[in-house]
Records
---
Amino acid sequence: MSGTDGGTDSTGGTGARGGFARGLRLWFAPEGIREEGDTPDYRFSLANERTFLAWIRTALALIGGGFAVDQFLPRLTSAVRSGLALALLVAGVLCALRAVNHWVRCERAMRRGEDLPVSRFPVLLSLAVGVVALAMVVVVLFGWEGR
């Protein structure tokens, strides 16, 4: 049911705001997830946790890559170096935030017996990383060195 007709939406709140606020609260108080539906098979919860950890490792790699670009490519112009570094750092931050959001959404869906949530985030992250990688290929080939 949609939140507009007085029922609860697919996120557990009444309407989009209630679901978002409840989901955000679960980031900081995950024990509240036990109020949702039935306990799933532990193997599924543990798989969900492993997926969360994989997203966190990806976030850490992106953040490390951003710092590496900034620190180890001093011959690039400042604008190019900063742009590439910031793109990687922002992608890392978004990936870390998405990790916890995805963990909560999947855990809630499993407890309710619903389909797992879908997301465009993996595509957006892949495109962002691809654009940064392509920019780095251009930098390597044409050597945008600072003067």
---
Amino acid sequence: MRDNQLVNLRMSGLDPKVRWSSQSFEAVRGMVARGLGYTVLVQRPPVNLSYDGLPLSVLEIEGEVGVSDICVAYTASERPSLRLRAFLDFCEETGAEKEREAGRNP
């Protein structure tokens, strides 16, 4: 995700200076809560607190942010659950909508 987010930031005219990185979502949030920098995350927890109980500020990104490909894998020997099927349908519908929008705004 890091490389993808860096591309999105650079496409927006930003050139972040990466000092630290971690594969741990909560470690990154903890570093931000301690004032060591900022991060761009692709998910949002239900609370704006780090595990240490320190407050975090969340800002939504405005404007275009690029695209991220996702891959869903499941066993072919079992039918997808209703929840997985709903998620796959949502992804397909959202992707088709984005493609239609891109066709209107090349």
